[in-house]
Amino acid sequence: MPVRACDHPAADLLFSHARGKSSPDERRVVEEHLAICDTCGRRVELIAWIRRSSETWGAALFEEHVPSGTLVAFCETPEGLTPDQASSVRTHLEICRSCSSEVATLRQVSDALAGAPTDARRKGRKARWTSWRGSLSSFLRPLSGVSPVPAYVLVLVLLLPASSGVRHWLDRERETAVPEALPFRTVTSPVFLGSGTERGDAEPTPVITAAESEEITLILQAPIVEGGAFRYDAELLGPAGESLWEQEGVQSIDQFGTIVLFISARELSPGRYAVQLHEMDAEGREDLQTFLYRFRVGGGR
Amino acid sequence: MTIRETTPSEWIEAYLFGDRQVHEECAAWTLSVVRHRAWRLPADSEDLLQEVRLRLLQAFEKGSFRGESSIRTYVESVAKHACLDALRRAKVREAIPFDEEQFPSSRDEPSETLARREDARLCHDVLMQLPASCRRLFQWILVDELTYEEMARKQSVAVGTVKSRLARCRDRALSLRETREGDARESM
User: B79 near B86, Cβ under 8 Å?
Assistant: First the structure.
């Protein structure tokens, strides 16, 4: 069978050859070709390389990364996984650098939250303390004359009030660093409003009871049109259908079309309201769909 | 009644009602996870805080919290889950050395060498960059040892289509592998 350099054997022949499953004739043809074709030589070597790893690791070699929830469970509550699941995760971690680095990160965070110092931090702290103590001893020895111990005590006595003040300041900073939590209600079951559709007078739910100083967070879900480039414009409509507020280009926070809107309750007197969500094309020229989310604001607290 | 005295179900009810104190407590727990520098996340922590709130809302409304841990532990787990997802979206990977003590080999063969495992890791890295359809084809032919006819039946396509897809996947894997090996040589 004549073979030219550009006559690369079919993929199945190369696969069979790399797996050692070709017939004598096929083997001869492929080997003759490999003698003159570097590209196919590299292709065969690649298949053999994958095959070697798959012989040891099996299907685990081809599996997707461990889902993030499973990884968290593996680190935090391994008893919640079945033995097979745990074994599968362990096997995956042996060959997946990405997931194993994520596990290491999870453990770092968990250790920090638990207040347990890691080995590295312990060793680092000990080394730093030893070095610090040595420097302090060298500094204080001439002052104390014989032993640095009284000097240590003196330093501690002087530093104690200062450290209390620093601690108090740190506590205050930590308190103010927490952002003000926003109470929210979820507005669910959007009403799809196409062109020419009547809105109807069904009792809008849910009811939000808003105090004057509160901000309301609304979480909406808008179906995503597949394959399109688009954006959302949101409009708040008052009890008389008047436009109270508009925001262009609101973003979905996830791939499910979840949108979060913050609305100041100060402007909302009790009554019926609606958020109208316009799905526009990417240039904002064409209105593709409109969704309506109703809610009612009750009396103040 | 203070937050400390509430039962988990009362806490969840207060959360769903929008109790400010409960939300502040939840935000503090969430931020302690989200703002940890170990994640090295480029995303704004406020975005992540919002994502965690949304997941908690969905979980509490569905009754997903089964009381097997404290509320705080549950919130922190959800936050870690969200951070991991953000990490994967950002494709940020920190090169932390693999800890052999943490994950000893599950294989009994004494001949398992470090070089072979490194090879397997590189192979896995390359395969993860391929589409799932390519990985599936490789697994079928190299692990499950399906014939081309069997693969064609599974995918409802002609045998010739399977072979041409396999060829494309093979060439893509080759290109990825050679790129990675080239990068590794340059970095040495």
Answer: no
Give the residue from A67, A212, A8 showing the smallest Cα distance to B163.
A8
Residue A133 one-letter amino acid: R
Structure ipTM: 0.75
Contacts of B33 (CB under 8 A, 6+ apart): A109, A113, B76, B79, B80, B83
Residue B79 is predicted with a pLDDT of 92
Q: Report the distance separating Cα A228 and Cα A222, nearest Å.
A: 14
Residue at token pair 């990417």: A282
Task: Nearest chain B residue to A107 by CA: give it.
Answer: B38
Largest CA distance in chain A: 99
Of all residues in chain A, the percent with pLDDT exceeding 70 is 53
**Interface with chain A: mutation pick from B3, B118, B128, B150, highest number of A CBs within 10 Å:** B128
Interval B97-115 mean pLDDT: 51
Q: Which residues of B, range 100-119, sit inside 8 Å of A by Cβ?
A: 102-103, 105-107, 112, 116-117, 119
Instruction: Output the pLDDT for position B139.
Output: 92
Task: Give A-chain residues touching B171 at CB under 8 angstroms.
Answer: 43
Of chain A residues 261-300, which have a CB less than 8 A from chain B? none
Are A252 and A259 in contact, with CB atoms under 8 Å apart? yes
Chain A residues with CB under 8 Å of B93 CB are 97-98, 101
Most confident of A217-231, A279-293, B58-72: B58-72
Task: Give the global pTM.
Answer: 0.53
Residue B125 pLDDT > 60, yes or no? yes
Is the separation of the CB atoms in A279 and A230 below 8 Å?
yes
Could you write out the DSSP letters of every residue in A211-280?
-TT-EEEEEEE-PPPTT--EEEEEEEE-TTS-EEEEEEEEPBSSTT-EEEEEEEGGG--SEEEEEEEEEE
CA B82 to each of CA B27, B50, B91, B183: distance values in angstroms, whole numbers, following the listed order: 14, 10, 14, 31
Q: Which residue from B20, B95, B163 is facing A11, i.e. has the nearest CB? A: B163
Q: Is A191 helix (H, G, I), strand (E, B) or coil?
A: strand
Q: What is the mean pLDDT of chain A?
A: 70
